[in-house]
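I hope you will forgive my troubling you with a question about protein structure. The matter concerns a single protein, recorded as an amino acid sequence and a row of backbone structure tokens. Please examine both parts with care and let me know of anything in them that strikes you as inconsistent. Here, with my thanks, is the record as I have it:
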Amino acid sequence: MLQKSKLFLQALKYSIPHLGKCMQKEHLSHCNFADHYYNRVKLKKYHLTKCLQNKPRISELARNIPSRNFSCKNFLSSKQEHEKPLSENMDAFEKVRAKLETQPQEEYEIINAEIKHGGFVYYQEGCCLVRSKDEEADNDNYEVLFNLEELKLEQPFIDCIRVAPDEKYVAAKIRTEDSEASTCIVVKLGDQPAMEASFPNVSSFEWVKDEEEEDVLFYTFQRNLRCHDVYRATFGDNKRNERFYTEKDRSFFVFLYLTKDSRFLTMNIMSKTTSEVWLIDGLSPWDPPVLIQKRIHGVLYYVEHRDDELYILTNVGEPTEFKLMRTAADTPAIMNWDLFFTMKRNTKVVDLDMFKDHCVLFLKHSNLLYVNVIGLVDDSVRSLKDGKLVPMTIFHKTDSEDLQKKPLLVQVYGAYGMDLKMNFRPERRVLVDDGWILAYCHVRGGGELGLQWHADGRLTKKLNGLADLEACIKTLHDQGFSQPSLTALTAFSAGGVLVGALCNSSPELLRAVTLEAPFLDVLNTMMDTTLPLTLEELEEWGNPSSDEKHKNYIKRYCPYQNIKPQHYPSIHITAYENDERVPLKGIVNYTEKLKEAIAEHAKDTGEGYQAPNIILDIQPGGNHVIEDSHKKVCCQAPLRW
């Protein structure tokens, strides 16, 4: 039954895409679910030859089944009352036994450990540890690495296999059917594979590689069915074997797990109700381990890793069911855990598997098995600068096909701790109806994720917002939303800083830009104390007049300061004659300098170069916060879009 359960879960894991579609269409019962996936499971047969020579025949096993003892009185009474039914049962048993005896021994099979690493598959064939090339795994063309008969064990089988990162060594845990005791062997790979070492009573084990490219094997030692000690060993010329950790609380045990990306080796110290996890750096295994969270009675947690973030499956908090939480790898303590995904009530978590862009949860609810595939990049973007997650909101028609060929309009703000406005605008509705994709990038400097989100995008962290914006646009393209030649970027007021900066640093991401009352000359504006808002704005942009650090930092991103001869997207700028917040002079100066740079680039490029359109539309009257009237929208829409 245990083997069937393992195969069933294995079928689930390798059938996720198909299962997702199937589960959306109908709820499968146990029977039709199993039948549906039976043909998708590929079983590998391990014919038992030498290993089973001394194994009792099936008929002998049947004859020696332990029986319950009765007194003569009870037996006779029972025999008299149930003589006929008992005789019928014995006849049925004899038929089963006879059928078993007539079946060839080769038809019985054991499903053993198998692992893929590099271009090879490692597994047990007969009484040997072998490997074969991945594409030849189903053939009989394999290389024998170790003969299990050398261990002098009765009916041995391989329970677990782990391959060293560079495939210099392979370790295998070997057990027998009638004992939980196991032996871990380490085989040195090469032209003539040979056993390098063996360790008795090993439970869990994993490989890592240190800074000097040396393979290090961590393993737990089992005594009286309990694992309290962790060892680490190296081989070859620098052979050593030392105790790494001992758990002193007898109610806890230790097991090792290597994260899916091999970045960390986790040392899991657990009781039935409580756990504590330590991280061993997969790149520096000789450094002291790092504690994620000290054990708290009643709190269980398990850890995976992806892109410098820890994904923690835990029962902490309410409701009591397991939930998936997330935190940065360098701040692993429980106070930094953020809720990422919650299970419905009365749901059991069977397993968790981490992939590049998805996390897969294998769940059981109402006695039915199912999977949840959680996208890790669909609803958020990781900044190119420091890996910070950046939320985006995307709109498009549900029936749109081939989104990569649709035009894309991206909007950004990212300043003063203010949320990016996503209120209804008639021209946006028209764009969506015409097949456009609208994307709102909630970058750092805005207020979407609280005060810290604003603090991380102001003063000398303003470049974070630029990195976030670049990451958003690249991710949109990578996820199949439009392409650079069909992408436009728009912003209002202070959002013009990030847009102008992106035009200077990564103009190839854009086809066109529209700016309304944009702030484009940060340095000169903030050094002019005669302007009404300069002093008020110091906390957002810094004081370049008195602080050289602020001045140099602003120079790094200021749109006006960083204009250079290169190809730019076409840019449409709307300015207002009476705007007191963003002086018209700064916008005019920016436009003239930009046109000069484009002309210089065109001159250097030669004939045939198609220069972008740079349009400055100065509206008479008006002010910085003029509302979008229907008349205004109708007049300006043809110019912008």
Notes: The longest strand covers residues 179-188.
